[in-house]
Specification:
About 50% of the residues lie in helices and about 15% in strands. Strands 5-4-3-6-7-9-8 form a seven-stranded mixed beta sheet, sandwiched between helices. Strands 1-2 form a two-stranded antiparallel sheet. About 40% of the residues are buried.
Amino acid sequence: MTTPSKLNIDPAKLNAFLGQALNDMGAAFQTALIILGERLGLYKAMAGAGPLLPVDLAKKTETDERYVREWLCAQAASGYVIYDPASGCFTLPDEQALLLAVDSGPAYLPAAYQIIASTVVDEPQLRETFKTGFGFGWHQHCKGLFEGTERFFRPSYAANLITSWIPALKGVEEKLRRGAQVADVGCGHGASTILMAQAYPKSTFTGYDYHEPSIQHAATAAKQAGVADRVTFKVAASKDYPGSGFDLVAFFDCLHDMGDPVGAARHVRSTLKPDGTWLIVEPFAGDRIEDNLNPVGRVFYAASTMICTPASRSQEIGLALGAQAGERKLRDVATQGGFTHFRCATETPFNLVLEAQP
């Protein structure tokens, strides 16, 4: 065991790291506070309301003023709300409100914190995977992960899928407008499937996921969205989902979670039409570790450690690409699966949008 006497301490570096650690502690505590603020409607009540006293916010949300005041102080210390000492009021700026109070906005942050909270709940079981090397399947996580994932990714899909990602694919948008057969593999709660169905009423869609509760949720969501006549959801895995003759097969943020992504790629190729397209959306990443040592990579590596890598290790092969696989590794998967054409069609700061064809 290393003792302090054996460590060569640089006081300046020690203080710098302590400051970083304190900042991270405050950020970690925000997880529960942000979820609480969402569920109590505190952010939505503050959005567009201008300066509010704690008592005003408490009245608007039917909550206790003393608790609300302490919550507001914590939010102000984190820079999430602004405090005015002269008036004693707190304000949620519009920029923060867009991310904290608008669940249809471009990036709804409370949903991300729901995902983070789920990993804390599951930590004891995940701790064992470090010792055994075994996996921890997606289906083994607590319910908060499934809900948070759909709520977090849906705004990004809504903002980009129809307007940017599909148009970036060669000839796909035209096929969808005329009427095409589409498979959405690893569809989860069905957000991406439903968005495509709403945008392309002449096409038909089938969503596949091995997690039965997610498929049940997706089927209900399709009925509520009024697209159940053109959308079907089925329980099936990526390597054996039924059907063939698809014009488009889509994998949204799930290929790296699969135990045998090459096997999945082979199956995709066997179910596509000769001129079909495989759309692969993956977390943005460079090909080298050092390319990803940044704030975005920090989030994705953490999620990959607690969710993606254990999910892959729980399956056959257990390749464990990880959420920061990068384009080169993903290209290798597609090539080994029999695809001869592969390119990055477009990207965002958070996504790689890849196109593969036979």
